[in-house]
Amino acid sequence: MSHRRLPNTDNARIRALKSAIQKAADTDFPELSFSTSILDEAKSVLTEFERLTTRYQQFYDIQVNAGHSFAKTTHNARIYVSHFIQVLYMCVMRSEIKEEQLDLYGLEDARLVVPDITSHEQLLEWGEKIIRGEYRRISHSGVPIYNPSIAKVNVMFTLFKEGYQTQKLHQKATTCALQEVAAYREKVDKVILVIWEEVEKHNTGLPPEKQLARNREYGIIYY
Q: Above 90 in pLDDT, residue 3?
């Protein structure tokens, strides 16, 4: 007898259950190769597993679609924060802003180099520092920097920050849905295994080729 290969993807698990259920629907009761009790359980498990996998896919699609928009707002925020810092440095080099005022922005040890803001967390950290620092400097009678203005930087940064928080929520929802699917797989695999065991046992007396063909009708997969 060839070796069985249990489904290793969620779609394959669903197909295996559907094959067994459909074959049972097309078979007269006396000729059914597995018990009606496991058939009822298979129907119930299939319904729940399809619900869980569909829910996960919906959350995943939402996350991916939101990710496209988030990538754009992230790009814009990174450009504006970086550009503002560069303009700030030029003002320092032209003596329009005192160098010691860089500590308002947390840039006192940066040596006139734009900090690394490649990650979302770094962009969050430095965006907040730069915006807070500029408003503090202006509140002490400092001349505002323009092109870009801190107001424009703040708009872009706020969009990024809101998108970041939303994306985190999407990721959390997707992860939770995936964990529910993963937790339910054990039950699905157990039902599939019981069906396959009963089918193979029921068809043991058939010639090898006919036995394999009959078993495959119930969704059993062989190497």
A: no
Question: How far is 8 from 19, CA to CA, in rounded Å?
Answer: 16
Question: What is the residue-wise DSSP string for 78-117?
Answer: HHHHHHHHHHHHHHHHTTSS-GGGGGGGT-TTSTT-PPP-
Give the amino acid at 170: H
How large is the angle between the packed helices 120-139 and 36-93, nearest 10 degrees? 40
Distances (CA, A) of 167 to 52, 76, 101: 21, 16, 35
Question: For residue 216, is pLDDT > 90?
Answer: yes
Task: Report the alpha-carbon distance of residue 132 to residue 77 in Å, rounded.
Answer: 15
Alpha carbons 125 and 110: distance in angstroms, whole number: 15
Helix or strand holding residue 167 (H, E) = helix 150-202
Q: Are 211 and 203 in contact (CB under 8 A)?
A: yes
- Angstrom CA distances, 203 to 106, 189, 214, 220, stand at 76, 21, 8, 12
Q: Is the pLDDT of residue 150 over 80?
A: yes
Over the stretch 77-113, which tens digit does the pLDDT of each residue have?
A: 999 999 999 999 999 999 999 999 999 999 999 999 9
Which tokens in the block code for residue 80? 């504006």
**Which amino acid, residue 12?**
A
Please compute Rg for the chain using Cα positions: 31
